[in-house]
Design a protein that fits this description.
Radius of gyration: 20 Å
Order of helices and strands: HEHEHEHEHEHEHEHEEHEH
CATH architecture of the largest domain: 2-Layer Sandwich
Strand order of the largest sheet: 3-2-4-1-5
Number of helices: 10
CATH class of the largest domain: Alpha Beta
CATH topology of the largest domain: Methyltransferase, Cobalt-precorrin-4 Transmethylase, Domain 2
Helix content: 25-40%
Low-confidence stretches: 1-16, 92-97
Bound molecules: S-adenosyl-L-homocysteine
Largest sheet: 5 strands, parallel
Amino acid sequence: MSINSSKDDPDLGGDGATAAGFARLDSAPFPSFDAGTVWLVGAGPGAPGLLTLLGYHALQQADIVVYDALVDAEILKWVRPGVTVEYAGKRGGKPSSKQRDISLRLVELAQEGRKVLRLKGGDPFIFGRGGEECQTLARAGVAFRIVPGISSGVGGLAYAGIPATHRDVNHSVIFLTGHDSNGEVPAGVDWGAIATASPVIVMYMAVKNLDGIAAKLLEAGRAGDDPVAIVSNASLPGQSVYETTLGDAGRIATEENLPTPAIVVVGHVVGFRDMLDWYGEALRENRLG
Ligand code: SAH
């Protein structure tokens, strides 16, 4: 079996790019995307190739796509011609007054009898408000399906050569958000427990508040020399990784103007980058990942 490489079609758009291999998938027995339903699809951390096959199938069926800020534009080119692509993103942990509007918009579109694809960055159920959107759909009696995606806190780290778990380091991992609904360091978090419960802490939306978060972890007894990596634009051509320590992380985040979106990871898994940093400059020319 041969699949055309993306180099054959620099534009990546339309049906041409991967037709030979993907034509077979188009006729595969995927679940049917019924009119009047909503599919919440995770787009993955960034690189378009990290979309799942079910996600790809959904894009081939949908008649409207409602997408978030962190969804790569290349993925949106895979919709059928003429399909409406509607932006519903927000960035930076602003108060979520708009969230209700987005959820209600999904209900409205479904009730118009459309096949509604709600496309979200990473995984819809990891710090993506996918649960909230599904609750609104459920209350309105709108049928939905979740298509999980590769979360940036796992797949994004992989692109930085950082395994989220490694037997020599950790048997557990914590996923933490650095924002509460007001954009502040989350207050309802037991920082003492977070600091000591797992050797590895993976933080989403944490750059802006990293100073405060690092201070909380240090105060709770986490070691100042614990390694930290800040992985920006993971899996994308502009990916960059800043390595520091917990003791310095707050200052770095304040002074360095680090690019976002970024995942912050604390723990000795960061050290594996020395050997495992595989996503070099040359590979970034592959725009699918
Ligand atoms: N549902 C998403 C997370 C949404 S919250 C997921 O599962 O990945 C948004 C946060 O995700 C950003 O603030 C950042 O911390 C992280 N993120 C998303 N895409 C990223 C990327 N390409 N590189 C680094 N971090 C990313």
